[in-house]
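Hi, here's the filled form for the chain we discussed.

Project: internal
Contact: R.S.
Residues: 400
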Amino acid sequence: MAPSTDSGNYFQTETSIEETQRKAKKSTNNAGNPIKLSSKILAVAEDPTNPNRVYVAESAGTVRRVVLEVCKTTIPCSADLAAGKLIEITGEKSHIYRGPTAPVTCLALAPEVIYAGCWDKAIWSWDINTRAPRRKYVGHSDFVKASLYVKLGERELLVSGGADATIIVWDTASGDKLHTLKGHARGIQDLAIDPTTLVPDSVAIFSASSDREIRQWTISAEQAAAETANSKPIIAHETSVYKLHFDASDDLWTASADNTAKCLSRERSWQADTELLHPDFVRDVLVDENGGWVITACRDEEIRVWDRSTGKLHHTFSGHFEEVTGLVLIEQTLVSVSIDATIRQWSLKPGDLQAAKLAAEEEGKKDVEIDEEEIGAAGKPSLLTEDEERELAELMDDSG
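And the returned structure, exactly as it came back:
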């Protein structure tokens, strides 16, 4: 490779220059019909009121509501306009929530309020429709990484997890800190509600941490400010656990920096009965109950679809050119976000998934053919070093 004359490449290794060039080339692809935003996307949440929209958290300190699909009526008729109907267009950022000046890392949605955890150690909130700022929750000593909204009886609670290794339970109405849960040794990465415990007056919450532990906490509406009990931690991974997801069978799926996603069986006291191996950190995991798939997001930019019954890899969606940071499943559409600042959509409908699989296999064959042609054109690789080749060339010149 010839030395670069680009001043922007000074002080960069050859490997880093090649990686930058690879990403620049890949960034032009349209796989997944990308919706491009202006800053890195760190989290995504589905809109419970509209399957055509998602909310995303951005590194620029904003939260956006983004329309995913073109409505059937692409041109509003006079009757629609007279009725005040909103015609939404794919990629439209219909609502932007502003306030934070640091990256927003997590989202939680209530019926009328959106909550956003931030690097500034606070949880911000807005009226979901008017975008008017609501209460700001301040109590963590490091940035907020995870958040949950829980309604127990008539009481609405916000639960947040921070890089300070603590979980805080808040009363959303008063803004009071009801309790601080301690037990993890390192930062909280994710929080999930145990679906089997959600009753009117109490709920169990699972927390994942960089200390590799998964812990269980019980929160009661009437005793929210009292000591909250936690059981012995679950240790199923070698290092950080990034995501938790309960499936329809109430088993727990986990994504970890040990390059695995696992299914922890409730019946077997949270022992792993499925392990999916990856080449890099696994950032997210979810289950498509109807299709029988497990979907994972990896730091290697890829989204993998696994056969849940066999644990075998079925297909890989490739399109993002930076780390994938979140997944949501809306009916039969998988939505992914990345620090490449794009939102992409992938159909899991049987026909579409099979077509994508066949197209990827065909593309793989073409890549092999191109590699073989390049090798053939270049000839067999030399077994000599560069200095040895130079000396050989000089000897050949002298012999002439």
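Let me know if anything looks off before we file it.
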